[in-house]
Every structure is written in C-alpha cells, then in structure tokens.
Amino acid sequence: MGRGDGTGRLVSSDDADDTGTDILHVDMDAFYASVEVLDDPSLRGKPVIVGGFEGRGVVSSASYEARRFGVRSAMNVGQALRLCPTAITVRPNFERYAALSKEVMRIFHDVTPLVEPLSIDEAFLDVRGARRLWGSPGEIARTLRRRVRAETGLTCSIGVAATKHVAKMASTISKPDGLLIVAAADTEAFLRPRSVRTLWGIGPKSAEALEGRGIHTVADILDTPRSVLERSLGAATSERIWHLARGLDARVVDTTRVEKSVGHEETFDLDIDDASTLRSELRRLADRVGARLRTHGWEARTISIKVRFADFTTISRSQTLPEATAVGQRIGQAALDLFDAVDRTMPVRLVGVRAEKLRAAGVDGPALWDDDEEWRRVEGALDDAAARFGKGAITRATLLGGSRGGEALPSHPRPESMD
User: Fold this and answer.
1) Alpha helix segments (H runs only) across 161-266
2) Which of 369, 359, 156 is nearest to 260 (CA)?
3) At what angle do helices 373-389 and 275-296 cross, to 10 degrees?
4) Which residues pair with 331 in a beta bridge?
C-alpha cells in the first residue's frame, strides 16, 4: 500500500486484465502543489508546502518531496517546517486551482457523461457506455491520463475496478502518476492483504477498535464473525465494512451528487481573546460561505461554527434555521448567536463557519414576505462587484484592515460547475 508519499506504489502493466471493470476513480496528484510547480517550474523536484506563510497557518497541500518528510494536509505549517526545514511555502491560489479543475472535469465529460466529482481534484467515472467509442476501461484510463497531462500539464492517478470502493483504493495505491487495474475476478486477492485503515469509511477510532481485537487486515475481517464486528463498530458500520471487505459495493456513480456542506475556517497568527475581533472574523467567514452558496445555487438549512482554543481543544456548535438561506447576513447572525453561547475560558486559535443540509435555491418557493429582501439586494450587488472587479473589491466597513490569519481556507472545495 502506498503511504501517501509515493513509496510502495503499485501500478499495472499495459496488458493488465480489465475484465468486469466499469468504474474509474481519477485523483489529481498533490493537486495544489502540482499547480504551483506548473506555474513556477523552479519549484520542480523541491519540497513544496501550499499554505499560510505564518507558522500558525495550515498545510493545504504538499508535494511528494515534502510528504516524504512526514508533511501532511491539515498539518500546522510550523510543524511541517520543523519536519522539512528546506520546504518552500507558497500561498494558496484557489481561483487558479478552480480554473484547472474545470479543465480536468471537462476532459472527463468528453469521455462519459457519468461523472461524479468528489472534490476539486477527484471524481468517479462510469465508462460502461463509453467502451464502443473509447475502448476498454483500461484503454480509457490510459487515454485520460495522456489527455490530462497534455492539456493541463498535470498528472493524475487512476484506479480501475468493478466498484467505486475498490477503484478509489486502487488510485491511492498507484499514486503518484500511476494506473492500477483490479479485474473483477481479482478483487478478493487485491483486498485481503490491505490494512483495515485503507477501507473507505474506516476512521482512526474504528480502526483502533478493530486493531484492539487483533483485526489488522481485510483478511482478518473476512475471518471474523459478524457479531464480533458488530460489538466493535456498531450495527450500521459493521454491516458496511462486512460488505466492502468482500468487494461488495452497490453504490453507483451519481451525477446529481450535491455537496453536504460548505465551510471556511481561519487559523490566527496569534491567539485572540478579544470578542469583537472574533465576531468580525466570523462575519467575514459567513460572508464567504454565503457567496459560495449563491455561486453554486445552494441554500443551507443548518449553520455550524468551529472554535479551537489555544490548548487545541476544539468544539463545534450548530443551529437549524427556520428557512434555508444563502444570505451571508443571516448565516453570520446564526454564527454569532452560536459563538455568544460558547463558554470561552482561554484565547482562540481558530474559528470556522459551515453551512450544512444544502438544497437547491428556491425549492420552497417564494415566501409571503422576505425578512432578508434588503440583504439579498445588497449581497447581489456585492456578487456583481466581485464578478467585475474581483473578490474583496467591496466589503463590510467592520472588516477593513485585513484578516488576522494567514488564509481563510475552504473545507473540501468543490469543482466549478460544468454549466
């Protein structure tokens, strides 16, 4: 199994058997870092960290050269630089990443309309209907890899399998810049030696629960009675893992998949104890969340906040709104109400705002009266100004002076719409 730094990768030969495979999982390699290297070739072959320049920033992405020192996404930049002192830190450029993501997704759609984006840099493809035009799944995967490199200058890794779960595992194992095909008949042999931690949906706590009972590999799961799995993981999770360990995954490529949430969070340069400053930052993040919702035509029914204190204790709070909204003012007020109810006993290191339970905008029809009508007009004007003059051209007076952190990072950013 590849370890995330490119060591231990497995790839298929050009004549690999792809019988019974219809699903591709395509994953761009260290996407943000690779885009930075593409735009600045002097970075090639060097350890690159994409994140805030300040030591309190968070790593958004790291090149494979940096990963071999133990640098990982979501790691504190200060810690990453201690692990890899020679790393070059680059500030994220999310607009550039989104533009290249759109190019990549268009290549996928040229091959098949059955594309399910998982994030800005990965997607599932169902290619069963594309065989007559493009060849076997293995041939399609090789064509996609060539096109992505030729048309964007970036590399991707692809897993080809009979199910989504196995295809995703295969792409991970083949990274970077690899292709791994698992024929349907080879699924069990492929899965048996894998760590339980590689199964899709097994988090650290579930893995620890299994390993505590001596269950370390998929083969161990296959040899374990379901009653034991149930006691370790609970009924729902144990049933899912029991099926996945046998290569059984009924999930299809879903082209209508809607993101479950949209969020932004910010790690401060210095711990902050001033309530008015924290409230201003929550307003800033709420406005950004609202703008993303409107860009994608979504509304949210639930708003949540995340607060991390100086000792790294992290809490979250959520509130369900009477009506779904994409209005930043409404999202911000909900976030502030939640924040005001938090018992703050020490300075704050990070805050975040997230919109959840998303739905298409306007599905409930027009309300008899709209309490947010004025704010909708104001924020519509802000959206127009951002489209014409760039983000941040107009902002709240209370937010002037810049943020207190290295970067307000989106959580699991989605690819741009294909429309």
Assistant:
1) 164-174, 187-191, 204-211, 218-222, 226-233, 235-245
2) 359
3) 80
4) none
| Residue in 242, 210, 209 with CA at minimum distance from that of residue 226 | 242
**Does residue 181 sit in the same domain as residue 274?**
no
CB atoms within 10 A of CB 90: 22
pLDDT of residue 392: 55
pLDDT lower than 50: segments of the chain: 1-2, 366-369, 393, 400, 406-408, 411-413, 416-419
**Amino acid 417: pLDDT:** 46
* Res 418: pLDDT: 42
pLDDT score of 184: 96
What are the CA-CA distances from residue 372 to residues 209, 323, 333 (Å)? 48, 11, 12
CATH number, domain of 336, equals 3.30.1490.100
Burial (CB count within 10 angstroms: exposed 0-12, middle 13-18, buried 19+), residue 310: middle
Q: Judge if 107 and 226 occupy the same domain.
A: no
122 assigned to active site = yes
Residue 135: count of CB within 10 angstroms of its CB: 15
Amino acid residing at 214: G
Count of C-beta atoms within a 10 Å radius of residue 229 = 22
Would you give the DSSP letter of residue 346? S
Domain endpoint, select from 185, 217, 237: 185
Strands (E), 189-327: 261-272, 298-309, 314-325
pTM of the model: 0.73
Pair (154, 127) in one structural domain: yes
Task: Read off the CATH number of the domain in which 77 is found.
Answer: 3.30.70.270
Residue 176: give the domain boundaries: 1-185
Beta strands in 100-204 (DSSP E): 115-119, 122-126, 156-161, 179-181
For residues 178 and 206, membership in a common domain is answered with no
Q: Looking at the structure, do residues 224 and 90 belong to the same domain, yes or no?
A: no
Choosing from 122, 266, 281, 299, the catalytic residue is: 122
387 and 330 share one domain: yes
Cα–chain center distance at 39: 22
**Contact between residue 153 and residue 37 where contact means Cβ atoms under 8 Å apart:** no
Q: Tokens 């590999």 belong to which residue?
A: 217
> SS3 of 128, please?
helix
Does one domain contain both 50 and 169?
A: yes
Q: What is the pLDDT of residue 224?
A: 93
Residue appearing with tokens 């620890």: 208
Number of domains in the chain: 3
* pLDDT of the residue at 369: 44
91 CB contacts (<8 Å, ≥6 apart)? 50, 51, 52, 53, 406, 407
